[in-house]
């Protein structure tokens, strides 16, 4: 009996020992599994961090952002589809400038995907901080972008007005609103300040600033629709199909948004060209933005506010065709061998293409603005072709490029101010919000 009890006690102790061993093993396995999960998570975290670091722009790329000048067709008309895959960049600069302005205006975005430039919307010096998510983040970026646009446009407004005065001076002479032609940029500045005062250099700037907000909102509405409709790939669908799709998407999106904001650009053009030098008593034709709408509607109706719209839409396609055609033709020739990874070679190519396409399409900008100037006047052009023909016949081809030099200066000034404003945002807020660089 005592033996049985002792044996039973031994068995019971062994069972307890086995149970304890089983629990210890299970606990060890559980901890080991947990440790493995933690190690895997840590490895994944490190991998993500390294990937994120690799995606950050290098010092060379950041420097490239300071000097490289982006492409685009117009302050109203240049969308970023096809070769421009950055949706945030597209949202910032959808319609922003005159036909040749964008070559210098937004130095923070790359010209094409193939050029070794910064691939994100960022300050020319510092990488952009992650933006807030949701509607609040969109609203902040939208409003801060508006402030940025206002600062940039306002700083460059004097040069912009001089550009418009020189570009449209022949229409003003015919209408009796200008006493004598301008001799150049300096003469235009001097006479405008003497005859109208310093503040007159900002005439028409309000309409130009207001135009930013509807264009950004319209861009948000149209960009995805047309991107899906014409989303051809160069390697998959072939060059010509991709090229045609790029022109079609740019033209359709540009024309759609341009339709809603064109009257603001018309009003800005008329106000900027409303010189009072040759007027009796120094009176102006228009008292302000609302007065432009009121008088144009009374004399010409809705057509008066949209005069030159058709040629503006054509201009979108012409610029994009010139830009991508020049890029695809010159890149294989210029960026070869040791120049393939050269920042300066890429910069020179981007400068050449954007300014070349901009200057080549500048006559279209001249024609559309000259047509705007005839609203409310007794003599009008029959069409954009008639306008083009009459300018060539009566004034010569040189007249189609009047104001192009001031246009380049205006773009440089706007780009410099925008870069400074982006840096100021980083210093004040610790990050850079959306820019309205247009």
Automatic annotation (TrEMBL):
GO terms for biological process, alphabetical: mitochondrial ADP transmembrane transport; mitochondrial ATP transmembrane transport
Any GO CC annotation of this UniProt entry: mitochondrial inner membrane
Keywords: Antiport, Membrane, Mitochondrion, Mitochondrion inner membrane, Repeat, Transmembrane, Transmembrane helix, Transport
Residues annotated as transmembrane: 239-262, 304-323, 343-364
Any matching Pfam family: Mito_carr
Localization, UniProt: Membrane; Mitochondrion inner membrane
InterPro entries: ADT_euk_type (IPR002113), MCP (IPR002067), MCP_dom_sf (IPR023395), MCP_transmembrane (IPR018108)
Main localization, broad class: membrane
Coiled-coil portions: none
Top-level taxon of origin: Eukaryota
Membrane topology per record: Multi-pass membrane protein
GO molecular function: ATP:ADP antiporter activity
Family statement drawn from the similarity comment of this UniProt entry: Belongs to the mitochondrial carrier (TC 2.A.29) family.
Official protein name in the record: ADP/ATP translocase
Organism this protein belongs to: Carnegiea gigantea
